[in-house]
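Hello again, I could really use a second opinion on something today. I've been puzzling over a protein and I'd love to understand its fold better. I'm sending you its amino acid sequence along with the backbone structure tokens. It would help a lot if you went through both lines with me. I've dropped the whole record in just underneath, so have a look.
***
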Amino acid sequence: MRAEYAVVFAYSRCKDNFRRPNGWLRKIPAPFADADLGAAVLEAATHSRDDMEVPEGPPDRPIIKSLGFKSRRAYLDRQISLDLIWNVDGKILDVTPTKNTGKGFEYLSPAIKLDLGQLSVEELGAAIRDAFKYSS
């Protein structure tokens, strides 16, 4: 999430068992409503898949270019991030704050667990927005 916009990416598990961006993203211009953020996260889940071919080259290169950055370093410069992972049945979303190290992101704390059966789309977006205060 950046001051000017939020970006939600879909990740897929590749054949080498690593999760990588699969090319789907939704860029939401600021100011945006919590419902817009929640809806984008739910849509991203529909684009995630397993057994994706391992991409050639840096897996985030197409995303960085589509956002208009010339390099990964420029992309990471002011970025803050959360890692979102659905459990197997898709009812619980683990939201993990991260720290931007300048070379990537490292996990900061245990995941915040969100029960999707108990939250509206707007409440989901608000909870995700709130989780960003733990990221740096």
